[in-house]
Amino acid sequence: MRIVLLCMFSLLAACQSHHVTPPPAPIAPENRDHAELGVIRELATGRTLSPQELVERLAAAPRVLVGEQHDNPDHHALQLWLLREMAAQRPQGSLLMEMINPDQQAKVDAAQAATRAGQPPADPYQALAWQANWDWSLYGALVTYALRQPYPLMSANLDRAQIMQIYKQRPLLTGEASTTKQVQATLLDDIRESHCGLLPESQMPAMLAVQQQRDRRMAERLLAAPQPAVLLAGAFHVRKDLGVPLHLKDLGAGEGNAVLILAEVGKPVTAESADYVWYTAAQPEQDHCAKLRR
Asked: Per CATH, which fold does 31-102+129-284 belong to?
């Protein structure tokens, strides 16, 4: 009888599983003939997953962290696809975005309420006071979709005023996982590199504090949000060895987190950084440092 019941439960679970729609085709122009294009890998085992298997794994996690390259259109198309497919597997609790600041939350709430009432804003960009540094042509479809959903769209960042206060007076960061010398040294190296070596060393402690306080804020917001929760942020922010997952651990929530990094082919992701990687086509290389040096 026990075997029969187990079989019946297995069949019921299989019947309840929703088959996913095909993922969107590549948009970015580079490396479309790369052998890794479209490959999804479970990094702990090295196993290649189907889109269906990835969705089922992510849908089972209370908190999903998705890392992106901000200027890659494929990453935003896949995020929208993931949100739709996970919602078909189970009800979504909330969506949090690095791209929304706390001082925008009231406008987001109002736009979402109006959209649910059948009166969506004619110009969401203006209604949300969207920040120009986040390219609306890349984020607009995803945000507009989120406004129509029954779950809240939430800020996961710091306001500019809060960032300036951190520059002036660095707060004490508590916790063992996020404050190791190795973590902070790696973050400092990345800050130097991302600013092309142009920042004076005197500014580095403040820059490190801002980076880590942003990660701590994302972790705090993720824990406070209705679950299951999804966080969309830059890939560096969601890294298990450097970013938000370390802060979740310091806040007592080291379990129940799934990290997916969307990465351009040719940019390897390791098991130390993420649970899963999905390789996409690439944007053309840009020399950002040349622009800064001008």
From this structure: Rossmann fold (3.40.50)
* Cα 266 to Cα 209: distance, rounded to the nearest angstrom: 31
Domain ranges in the chain?
31-102+129-284
Tens-level pLDDT at each residue, the chain (294 residues): 444 443 443 444 434 567 999 999 999 999 999 999 999 999 999 999 999 999 999 999 999 999 999 999 999 999 999 999 999 999 999 999 999 999 999 999 999 999 999 999 999 999 999 999 999 999 999 999 999 999 999 999 999 999 999 999 999 999 999 999 999 999 999 999 988 888 889 899 999 999 999 999 999 999 999 999 999 999 999 999 999 999 999 999 999 999 999 999 999 999 999 999 999 999 998 877 876 666
**Whole-model pTM over 0.85:** yes
The dihedrals phi and psi of 220, each to the nearest 5 degrees, come to -65, -45
Tokens of 109: 């709430």
User: Per DSSP, what are the bridge partners of residue 155?
Assistant: 97
Length of the chain, in residues: 294
